């Protein structure tokens, strides 16, 4: 068992990382405040882990909410259904919500927790690689709007994050790859050594070698925890975690939520960001090729959908949350391992790379 802390003063919390999930009960229970627990999960994940979570929660009064699977259900309608379920179950301010699943479940459960009776306790138990390295940490909670990704949400931190690497064993290959896109993102934006470690350990990652995955998950959580501790509400540096997302969110919204997985859209978006940086002479052709080669190793897309025009991207990117004074802002790599926020990308530059 490894653990690290997200240092946020009076709302600091631990991230536990374990290989087999055996300590679920001993690490989870101290973070549950009352007797009532509602586990929010989905129709794919709950059947796999219900007996394990039920065993860990034998001392509590537990109910389960199973949402439909998929990004297309990260909506206000599902949010409303969960609220109705909580009220019908008689949940009160002393309830603890547990998000058991990937980023979709985590984001929606977090938003419910932030707003049910103006805020209740919640714990993240992420079961996908993407949610273990990214979405369960940092307190961004949200649902999608047809006009834009994560448009309705709140910053609301969990009480704890419990990662069992064992859960990756049942994860479909395509979902594992989508998680690798966010892993590669950390290498590009913050840690050249991590990027090189990924390049040097492709086979071990593909085989989900325990030690290699433990290192990767821990390092990604460490980078995210450090950035979030410095800038919880994205007033500055946290925006760097959005590398690839300005383009990626446009792809997800334009293609219809769930058709491109979030990680796949981010992969294509990171290549587009690298190409913009290359155009400006910041990173060289060989760095762009290294990013593409690494993404290719996990069968991730390295360009956007052929059907999308530059205008299609711009239409969505104009609604991006980083827009300031009507200007679309992008995260671009200065070099491998360092990224910056830029506000002066021209339409002509976009036309060139898209
Ligand atoms: N809040 C944040 O900071 C943040 C960060 C990154 C991504 N996100 C959001 O996260 C979402 C993507 O998350 P995701 O990639 O985890 O997708 P997801 O939640 O849709 O999970 C992917 C698929 O894997 C299934 N699954 C989950 N765990 C499993 C397991 N152990 N075994 C078998 N199947 C399993 C799910 O049912 C689903 O079908 C997007 O909505 C994205 O916007 C949020
Ligand atoms: O935690 C963050 O900050 C991130 O940007 C992480 C991203 O990987 C994640 O997809 C996030 O949900 C995007 O945030 P948004 O504010 O662009 O919706
Ligand atoms: Zn993301």
Automatic annotation (TrEMBL):
Listed Pfam families: DHQ_synthase (PF01761), DHQS_C (PF24621)
> To which pathway does this protein belong?
Metabolic intermediate biosynthesis; chorismate biosynthesis; chorismate from D-erythrose 4-phosphate and phosphoenolpyruvate: step 2/7
GO BP terms in the entry:
amino acid biosynthetic process; aromatic amino acid family biosynthetic process; chorismate biosynthetic process
Entry note: cofactor: Binds 1 divalent metal cation per subunit. Can use either Co(2+) or Zn(2+).
Compartments reported by the entry: Cytoplasm
The GO terms this record gives for MF are: 3-dehydroquinate synthase activity; metal ion binding; nucleotide binding
Question: What HAMAP family does the entry give?
Answer: DHQ_synthase
The name under which this protein is listed is 3-dehydroquinate synthase
Taxon lineage: Bacteria, Pseudomonadati, Pseudomonadota, Gammaproteobacteria, Alteromonadales
